[in-house]
Structures are given as C-alpha cells and as structure tokens.
Amino acid sequence: MLEFERKLWGRGLKYVAGIDEAGRGPLAGPVVAAAVIFPEDIFIPLIDDSKKLTPETREDLYEAILWKARAYGIGIATVEEIDELNILQASYLAMRRAIANLPVLPQYLLVDGRDFPENTIPCTPVVDGDELCFSIAAASILAKVTRDRIMCELDQKFPEYGFARHKGYATRAHLEAIERFGFSPVHRKSFHPKRFTECQTSLENDES
C-alpha cells in the first residue's frame, strides 16, 4: 500500500501527507478529517480502509498511527457548517483544517476521492484511496476513531437517539428515535426532511 508514497519519497519529497474524512453520510454530527505524514521506514501491519476494520482494531491502530507518524492533524467541520456550506464543501473544509493542524507543512498531498479544490499544495486525488494508499488508510482510521468518540460524547448529551451505537447513521433505531423525539440540535438540518424520507424508503425497500 506504500506505492504512492515511495514514488514521492523517491523524488526527494520528505513530507507526504495522506488525507481522508469520516462522516459524510450520517444524519447527525460533524464531519471529521485527518492528515498523516509518515517516515520512510514506516511499517504498521493491518492498516486498511477504516470501514473494513472492527472498532477494537481501529482503536489499536489509532494508537499505533499516533506513535509512528512523523506528524498528524485533525480537522472538524461542525453541523452548522455542514448546513451552511453543504456536506461536500464542509468535507473539504475539514480536510483543509486537518492540513493546517499538521505541525509541519506537507510537500505533497494524497487525498481520498476525485478532487480537492482550493488547495495550494501539490496533490493527487486517489479514488478508493483508503483501500489503495497506506497514508490515506491511516488518515481514514484517525478520522473515523475521532468522529466515533465525538458521537459517543454526544450520546451522553442526547441519550434518546443512541448515537453511541449508530454514530448518527440512518439505522432503523435512529429513524424511529427521530420520529419519536424530533430532531436534536446536532442533526443536520440540510439533510431533512428529504434525506430522512429517503432513508426510510431505503430501509423499507431492503425489508420488502
């Protein structure tokens, strides 16, 4: 998974950052991005797309990544910013904040996805980067674990919604809680009622 990084290291680029985000799809909570720069001798077994890993494995890898990374940064876009900008632009904002929070300026970026506009650093977007690129996969783990922890904190404030279990995604239990209690302050206003209806329809179709 280090092919992208090795090509850039071979060009003398020492600070290559992998970038990814977590939380584009949920009905509630922020979107979180991470940026990670590794040394050239990096080796962490089991690194993969965060969505393919168990929560326990993600937590273990989170600690290993922080320990072995040359640098890392976390960026967050709030629910209010998601509603104001839209989820795509808020995701880009979180990514730019993650880069800004790196203690060193990266010389090159490897970003999960098809595009990363408004960026002044040389960059390669990598489709399915969290499956193909080591640094992006590591960033996906940092972003996912950080966001999951935020959602567990929100669960303490709004226990009726079950955020600790579904992390804001449109599970049946979550949709039923919304029907019963209405939307909380941490639900994305730009996602409902249309998105709420779409999720209900999708679940009903899955069961039919």
Features of the shown structure:
single chain, 208 residues, alpha/beta, Nucleotidyltransferase, domain 5, 5-stranded mixed β-sheet
What does this structure look like?
A hairpin with an 8-residue loop joins strand 1 and strand 2 (31-37). Strands 3-2-1-4-5 form a five-stranded mixed beta sheet. The chain has a single domain (3-155), classed as Ribonuclease H-like superfamily/Ribonuclease H (Nucleotidyltransferase, domain 5, 2-Layer Sandwich). It contains nine helices and five strands; from the N terminus they run H-E-E-H-E-H-H-E-E-H-H-H-H-H. The chain is α/β, with parallel strands linked by helices. Helix 2 packs across helix 6 (134-157) and helix 3 (79-85) crosses helix 4. Helices cover 48% and strands 14% of the residues. It has helices spanning 3-10, 55-68, 79-85, 87-100, 129-132, 134-157, 163-166, 172-181, 194-207, and strands at residues 16-22, 31-37, 71-77, 108-112, 123-126.
